[in-house]
Amino acid sequence: MKQMDILFFGQLTDLVGAGTIQIENPGTVDQLKKLLFEKYPAMTNTSFTIAINNKLAVADEEITDGATIACMPPFSGG
Amino acid sequence: MLEERYHRQTILAGFGIAAQEKLANARVLVIGAGGLGCPVLQYLAAAGVGHIGIADDDQVSYSNLNRQILYGQEDIGKYKVVVAASKIQALNNTIQTTTYQHRCNQSLAIEIFPEYDIIVDATDNFASRYLINDACVLMQKTLVFGAVSKYEGQVAVFDLSQNKEGIHYRDLFSDPPKNEEALSCSEAGVLGVLPGMIGVMQATEVIKFITGIGKPLINQMLTYNALTQHTYLMQLTKSIAPSATMPNDLASYLHTDYPGLCETAVNEMRIQEWLQQKEDLILVDIREEDEMPRLVSFQHLSIPLNTLLQHQETLQNKELVFICQTGVRSKKAAAMMKNICHNVYSLQGGVNELLKKEII
Fold it and tell me: B23: distance to nearest CA of chain A, Å?
């Protein structure tokens, strides 16, 4: 399995403890979420959206090998 | 004199007198005159946007001065809209300003949004952001969005003016998050220049949209990190999953409880209850380390709120009672830890209540 980069933004960086992690391609966006929730239980209570290769992804979207994934939370400050 | 004022931009190829006239005829509403709103207002006034509306209900405080650059020490206690309007009028008295000394709520949005071409979201909380987004969708207004979190910021343009079905904030984040999912600038801190950067980007997008130069960030969201100078650009698409809380029309919009949608119920514990049970609970002081008095007479952990998530493994499955100065931040801490811990409580009234009851 190919390793892929997952980028975290905003408060997710604190929650995960890193700005980037590497994982094996989990297959789909839903499976990626499941994996992240197992690894980082606090993410289950946090709103975030997922982008694949800089494009907002949909739930059952397939993740191609070598893709860059971003987990983006909403920011509230101003 | 007018020609001289705008000379440096009107000589730009692709800008010219025509773009300047478009700016002069434009009406822009800036909601929030804080860290984001200040640079937005300054640059829009300087560029010659003909009519600028400013909505904010807050007064200037010392803690605003590291980033809210329209205000000085002499303005402490004054209403931000009053100071902001007078400062930008002093910068450019050829433009008109209208001030709304109110927090933007649904009835104000319905009343005043039709008078403006572009709405700038420079607020600081989720409830206002969803309230503004939904009004822009329902009233078909172009929304220039900006938000910050510690060292990072987001900017996006949602052009709903031509198309009610256009992409908007809820296509990114369908329903309002709970307040505890993101710390505010006063809780997490913010580097002063960061909202400056993001506010200037919002002003840039407003000017581009009005004049038609370049490519506005329509249907894209830019994320900027001040620590690395990295940017991340996300292409947005229309979400297929419907939002559960988006009102369908202005009547249901008026009855949507935006602050309520962002709140999580937490268990509050009264001081007397805590005194009886305190042997079974871990007391966690989430105040900053320089907040006085310290809780020397009670066994406790000191974990400032903005570092709480880093301690989630230590706190997991424990029974905790959070304390802060007044009992507000401890509610947020309890909400953040609600699903990670066994039982969490917020101590009502906080340290101030302990002082009042002469317990410390």
Answer: 25
Q: Does residue A32 have a pLDDT over 90?
A: yes
Q: Which residues of A touch B129 (CB under 8 A)?
A: 74, 76
Task: Please give the model's pTM, rounded to 2 decimal places.
Answer: 0.89
Give the pLDDT band of residue B265 (cuts 50, 70, 90). confident
- Give residue B295's Cα distance to chain centre: 32
The span from the CA of B272 to the CA of B281, in Å, is 14
B136 is catalytic: no
Establish, for the pair of chains A and B, how many residue pairs have beta carbons separated by less than 8 Å: 118
Q: Which amino acid is at B111?
A: E
The mean pLDDT value for B72-94 works out to: 98
Q: What is the pLDDT of residues B183-215, one digit of tens each?
A: 777 788 899 999 999 999 999 999 999 999 999
Judged by CB atoms within 8 Å, which residues 204-233 of B form the interface with A? Answer: 221, 223, 232-233
B229: burial class by Cβ within 10 Å (0-12, 13-18, 19+)?
exposed
CA–CA gap between residue B354 and residue B360 (Å, rounded): 6
> Residue B103 and residue B257: Cα distance in Å, rounded?
15
As given in the structure block, the two tokens for residue B239 are 């979400």
Report the 10 Å Cβ neighbour count for A44.
12
| B250: DSSP letter | H
Q: Residues B217, B155: contact at Cβ < 8 Å?
A: yes
Distance from CA of A2 to the nearest CA of B (A): 23
Q: If pLDDT is split at 50, 70 and 90, which confidence band does B263 have? A: confident
Residue B131 CA: distances (Å) to CA of B31, B198, B213, B247:
11, 21, 29, 10
C-alpha B33, offset from chain centre:
10
DSSP string across chain A: --EEEEEE-THHHHHHTSSEEEEE--SBHHHHHHHHHHH-GGGGGS--EEEETTEE--TTPBPPTT--EEEEPPP-B-
pLDDT at A1: 60
Q: ipTM for the complex?
A: 0.95
Structure tokens at A77: 């400050």
User: How does the average pLDDT of chain B come out, rounded?
Assistant: 94
B104 is catalytic: no
